[in-house]
Design goal:
It contains 11 helices and 11 strands. With 309 residues, it is α/β, with parallel strands linked by helices. It folds into 2 domains: 66 residues, no CATH class; 236 residues, 3-Layer(aba) Sandwich (Rossmann fold), CATH 3.40.50.720.
Length: 309
Amino acid sequence: MKARSLVVRKFIAAPHNGWSPDLSGQLQSIGRFVVGRFIARPTRNELRYYKLKCVSPNSIEKLERETDMARKKILITGAAGKIGRVLRDGLKDDYDLRLLYHRTVLPAAPGEEVFVASIKDLDKMVEVVDGVDSVVHMAGDPEVGASFESVYENNILGTYCIYEAARRTGVPQVIFASTNHVTGYYEIDGIYTKPEMPVRPDSHYGASKAYGEALGRYYVDAFGLSVHCLRIGTFQPVESVQNRTSDRILSTWLSHRDMVQLTKRSIEAASVKFGIYYGISNNTRAYWDTESARKEIGYDPEDNAEDYA
């Protein structure tokens, strides 16, 4: 019988999903194969990387059925926000979604779980995060000019509740929506910036996000959580680049699909215990370094603001 080919990703170990680090025995029961080592169950849309040759004609379909049964459950906080809505649409095909709303509640799509609560309510957050594989924490006050009182309540206290709820329930990973304003004064001074440089926030908002990064580092070292901090750039549709009033966006733009990809890469790189990554597209004029995101989690941005300049 002629061998069939399927492209499969190489994955990072995820013991909680029931697959052992060496899958050869389990895959052998699905069909004979030739494959490099891979160490976690793939998602359906990511059966696209390394080649797996199956002798049984039904083996691919069986692998896909098994994959569907093992879909990760992802919580998106701030699901009604600008980024939250894009992630909801961009992640739905690969993951089971649980959505957290506060004031604005959108209609649920089939298969979605919905909670309505404040991220400042720790007891409620324990209930909300329980049973998910990753928390994509997008909730908070996103305004650069926000008052200290607001960022304290929404970004400092709220972020603490998310980390602490994850710790109490054994959720393995939090993906934290940080901001480029954590290092805003480097930009003001015209200095090319890398994630490992000391923080230089340009506002109470930036300082609150720097606190969220530092708190995440503490939960990694003290409790073994995996935390990825995404320093999000100018998250706007293509039209905002084309109709820009300033050329800054040509350096700082993060496209919708690149934001979705960056989040997916973080979800699937849970073995990377801590990372700080600038969230921007592949912009020719970029002055924030994305090399660590490329090397550590495989981020490969597809868009470039220059194409719309």
